């Protein structure tokens, strides 16, 4: 953590948060910045895909259930575009089947809301290492 | 006539001869004959007489006695001459004589022909006793029996005659005056005529015998003729009535004559018959000729052939089935008579019956449906073939109740016995389902519908149709299982969905809270602390907390959605009957025998009909479920309604199920308390809420025997019901309760 912080703002890895819930978009980037990452928030998969952050994002923190494209759809779309961004899925829906499915399809992590800051950091670190 | 004065022939001699009667010696003059001057023998006259007698015997034996009397009269120149024959009855000479009978008299006594005397009442008896010729004078002095016979006999010469050494009668000559006296010549010639009398007698006897024989034969013939004419008339009646065919035939194959009935049967005309074209051999189809030959063999040996069935060809070649029986006429020969009965109708009826039986059997086979008839008084049971197949018993084996019991599933035995008992007592139609346990341990499900009828003797009988519903039952069971699984899944799913949506709704703000709080702590932990950032994140934490609180409130609102309570006047019995109609098939499927005792004087109540029905349904379901595993006793459920105190009604549902532990009595009604694997523990809880909303009570008691009874009591007119404060929504809870 200290190591990332020492890199300074310009050298910080960019983490993108995609979630339709506003409170998550408000709170999660702040926490990630506290961890020392650069963070951007998007309210939908479409918004993320049309932004200029797709190539620069080192890790995607992705909600599953969203209006329009779901998190899973976005995962598939990124694969299709050969964008190998590690993804940590976050969801409020406790569903083991989905958890198993996304992990099997290559997700870097899976967190159930509400999650602790420690679990989040561990998942992000794992994701960055996979990258 | 003397005979007519006294017909008694058994009067003793002593009483018939008066004390004063003259002694025999005093009236006999026999010895004088030799002393009297005798006239010369008239040989020529005697010869003439004998020739006349002999020719008379040959020509007219019937009148030989009369001729003999005339000749005696002629030769002896007497006044009266005649014969006395010893007979039994005064007429017929066959038996030992006890009377004398006068078959012929010539001369003055001729009017007395046919008369006679008892043997010892006249001089003839004396002649036979002394076995010689006797000459009497005025014998009426000794034999008053002859006194009325006039004119009186001055002298009477009597000569006995014999057949085979036995005295059978006398010939006699009488002088009624003393114009002349009999002499030795008279004695001699009378003796000669006496010998002839014997021959004449024998000839006459033969004639008499012949007459008797002829008479007897004529009588017999007359009887036969009479009988025959009577029989003939009757036979003719039978022939002409044409109720049966009558045929005269011969063994050569000809039909000699026949009545209309027969001709109609084979559709030949009387002309055909007259022409000899109708021959029974030709009428008989080839395959029946052997049978005919057997009948002919019988005819030849016994003279009759017993009735048998065969066919004849009609004139047009079609066939007519007949019953045939007959006999040869007596006296051997070829000819005989037969009756022929047209069996077309019977055969048609038999065919129709066989066809309908076949159709029925086929129908039963196709429908896997058997039938039986049970005579209750005698326990006689008749099964259709298909029922034997269903029970897998040998077709035709005698059916008894104990045989049936060997197949009835042990768990259904009490139900079966109870059904039998009800059927014996009842006389109502009934319907039931039960299981068979087959020898290979497989189970068959049968559905029987029985109709009570009164037999011809007024005895109770059941006619029943029994269907093997195993396949249907199994598919139903599978369907029910699938349905209940589906229902269970649906319930779980709906709860899961609810939980998920609750979780989602709550977890979003919670997530924000946790994240903000974490951020806040981290901002405060930096050096220098980022107080503004921390304040901002704390503010967001509070905001998200409120959001979570809103979610909970929203959920509670969703759950406690109020519904308008709709009180109306209800006939509880009616409401119960509607529920019973809905749940009957379900109960039957669980082999629950439901009885109901609905009170007759129930007052109407005010309440929510649908909600109360929900309670009744819950209680029935609850009782049925409690007996699900009960197999050693009938699964009986009793629902009863009654008036309770003055202004309450009470409903109870009594089961024979597993019951409950005493300490669990209160828990039963708690939400989410359940003993069932698939239960939610909502039904009784909801039910209690509904009853309490009606200002009533719902409680459970353990039965004396197995099982429990759930009862509720509600007032007919509960206070304050219209304020809509029940807070119960049976529609929301119904799925769980079910």
Describe this structure in words.
The complex is a heterodimer of chains A (131) and B (738). Chain A has one domain (2-130): Rossmann fold. In chain A, 47% of the residues lie in helices and 20% in strands. Chain A has seven helices and five strands; from the N terminus they run H-H-E-H-E-H-E-H-E-H-E-H. Chain A has helices at residues 2-6, 8-11, 22-35, 45-49, 71-80, 96-104, 117-130; strands at residues 14-18, 38-42, 57-63, 87-91, 109-112. Mean pLDDT of chain A is 86; it is low at 1-9. By secondary structure, chain B is of the alpha+beta class. Chain B contains 22 helices and 24 strands. In chain B, strand 11 and strand 12 form a beta hairpin. Chain B starts with a helix and ends with a helix. The A-B interface holds A 21, 23-24, 26-28, 30-31, 34, 65, 90, 92-95, 112-117 and B 500, 503-504, 506-516, 518-519, 522-523, 533, 537, 540, 543-544, 547.
As a whole number of angstroms, the C-alpha radius of gyration of chain A is 14 Å
Number-wise, the strands of chain A total: 5
Looking at the overall shape, the CATH architecture of chain A is: 3-Layer(aba) Sandwich
Termini separation of chain B comes to: 129 Å
How would you state the average pLDDT of chain B, rounded? 81
Q: Which fold name fills CATH's third level, the topology of the largest domain in chain B?
A: Beta-Lactamase
Helix content of chain B: 40-55%
* Elements of chain A, N to C (H/E): HHEHEHEHEHEH
Strand order, sheet with most strands of chain A? 2-1-3-4-5
